[in-house]
Amino acid sequence: MDFKNTLEFAQQLDEQDHLHKYQDEFIFPKVNDKKVIYFTGNSLGLQPKRTKKYVDEVMNDWANLAVEGHFYAEKPWWDYQERFANPLSKLVGALPSEITVMNTLTVNLHLLMVSFYKPTAKRCKIICEEKAFPSDQYMFQSQVHFHGYKPEDVIVEIKRREGEHNIRLEDVLAKIEEVGEELALVLIGGVNYYTGQVFDMKTITEAGHKQGAYVGWDLAHAAGNIKLELHDWNVDFAAWCSYKYMNSGPGNASGCFVHEKHHNNKELPRFAGWWGHNKERRFKMEPVFDPVHGAGGWQISNLPILSLAPYLASVEMFDEIGMDQLILKRDKITSYLEFILNEISKEVHGSFEIITPENPLERACQLSVFLHGEGRSLFDYLMKNGVITDWREPNVIRLAPVPLYTSYEDMYHFGQILKTGILGK
Fold it and tell me: PTM N6-(pyridoxal phosphate)lysine: at which residues (predicted)?
C-alpha cells in the first residue's frame, strides 16, 4: 500500500478500520489534558472499560454471599477458571482441555519445568535465546542449580551473529542438532521482548522433538499478539502473562498450555495441590492426589477470583473479535508506523535503525528502534508530550501499536511530535 505522511490519509485509514470503535472500549491516561498515544501495551495493556463490571460483580457476590459465592455466585468461584478454556483455546490454537489459568508467568514456567525438565547424566542441556527476558534467565539458572548442575555447563544460548540484531532460524536449528542427544529442553520466548523478533515455533518445535527433547515456549509477548497453533505445532507446554496484549491488569494471572499427549502420563512429575485434584471430589479432602484430566491437573491453589475477573473481561473481548481481524490491523498499522519513522528520519536527517525484522512473518506488534545520535532526553520529551513509550539501554525505544486501541492518526501525530522533539533541541 502507498502510505502518506498526512493527517488526512491517517484519518482515512481510521475510517476504513473495522476495529477503530474498540478504542472507545479502553481508558486512556491523559498528559496535558489530552489522551496519550500509548505504545507500551507490550509492557502493560490499557484498562478495558468493561473490566469494572466484572470486578464489581465479584465484589458484590463476596459482599452478599460470602463463602457461598464459591457455588452460588452468578459465575461460581469454584470453577471460575473454566470460563477461560474455550476462548483462550481459540486464541492460542489449542484444545480447551489443554488450557488453564493460574499463578503468574515465571511461577508457571517453573512449575512446568518440574514436569518437562528432567535432566539425566546424558541429557541435561537447555537451549534458550541470547538476551532472553531476565526472569527467564534467572529461572534457568536456578533450575539447573536445583538439579546440581552449573549454568555454564548446561545452559546453551543461541547467539546473534556479529553485527546482527536478530537470531537466524538456521542458527537455532543448527544449535539444536549440535547439542543433539545431550538436549533435554528447548525453551525460548516466542517473541523476543527486546527486538520484537517472532520465532518460527513450528519448525523449532519439530527440530527439538527430532533430538528427543521437550519443547516449551514463553509466550509473554506472543499471546494476543500473534497467530498461535500450539496443539497442531505439537508444543509440549507453554505459558503467558495476561497483562500485556491481553489487558488484564498489572501482574495478573498467567495462562498455561499442556499438550493433550501428556494428559494421561502418570509418570510425568508435577507439583500438586488441591485445586488440581479431581474436581468432583475436591471437597472430600482425600489424602491421595487424583489430578484433573488435562491442563487443569497442573493447578495447585484455588484461584484469585478478583484477579481473574479483569482477565475474563478482556478474553471475552478477544473472543468477539478473533485473532485474524486483530492480525490484519496489526500488520497494517505496524507497517504504517514503520513508514512514519522512515519519513521522519529523512526529514530530520536522522539515522533511525529499526532492529525488528522487516519480514512480516518475523515480527508482530512491536518495532524496536535505535535512535542513533539521540539520547534519553528525546524519550523524556516524548513522555512529557503525551507519547507513552518504552526505553531500553543504550538508546532503543520500543513502540507497540496495539491494534485494539491505537489509531492510524496516533501514528501520524507521533511522527510530528518526534520530529519536533529532534528539531527543537
Answer: 244
